[in-house]
Write a structure and sequence with these properties.
Length: about 350
Amino acid sequence: MFDIAARAVRILPAESAHRFIIDALKMGLAKPQPQLDDPRLAVTLRKSGLKLPNPIGLAAGFDKNAEVFAQMLAFGFGFVECGTVTPRAQAGNPRPRLFRLDADRAVINRMGFNNDGIGYFVRRLSAAPRAIGVIGANVGANKDSEDRVADYVAGVKAVWPYCGYITINISSPNTPGLRGLQDRGALEELLGRIGIAARDMDAAVKNRPLFLKVAPDLDDKAISDIADVAKAQDWLSGLIVSNTTIARPDTLASKHKGEAGGLSGAPLMKKSTAVLAAFHAEVGDSLDLIGAGGIASADDVIAKLRAGAQAVQLYSALVYQGPMLAQRIKADLVAMMDSRGAERLSDLNAA
């Protein structure tokens, strides 16, 4: 029923459909029945110690303003990441800025960190019951900020007491100059200043994992530099690999393929998984890795795990497969474990 409704909503323009879904969830028009996960799906991330009931997460971008994280957990996600949120509210880029590439099972967005600001975001998070589940907060910088690093520090401090983990998003292609923070010198300054804030905040509220979200459009030197800087931060828990891509594969067939912005969905799977594997080769088990980009099936999850991820995130596939996708992927993973006599999810990593 939920998937049929989601397909019906696709007659609306992409951004209008997204807003309709958020509002419908807030009004209780879609009330999934939460189900207990097979205990074999549970994972504990090695460095951060973050405990997840299952490894399928909802990526940032769906619930920008922390409005429906409880509802999305009920759809079967093991964790939900809200945001990206910036210190001050901002409208984002001009519309239209979100495009479905139906023929490619993909999406292009140039949203530009549109959100209601950190105050609204924190009020929503702070009102949630502590035992609701694992909720992440993805923080960014305002487009017109004079000190973007200060924006990240402010965001980390604001959300710290109210979430299960924090993601530092420096990899969106839709805020001019933002990806420059991935350059070695800029990244050292950013993480250095966030590290000071993290140590101060840890004195009051301990054990708040922090992740750095990186782009898939990185060459070998950039991957090596980011890995070196990240490994040097003892407070940093891991990396989320990856955000959307500015590349446009020759295979794209949709009329919207030339739109500016970040491409996500099925065409990103191969590229993002290769970058994930490259980061794993650099960091090994010294950092937790969360794989994102193109996931739409249990086989995709296994591919990310084999590339070094301990957990995964998806979003764009929901546009085409509906909100019950997480439940279907979990059922398929359990069926795989049953067929192979696997006692834990990691047993499926072997080819």
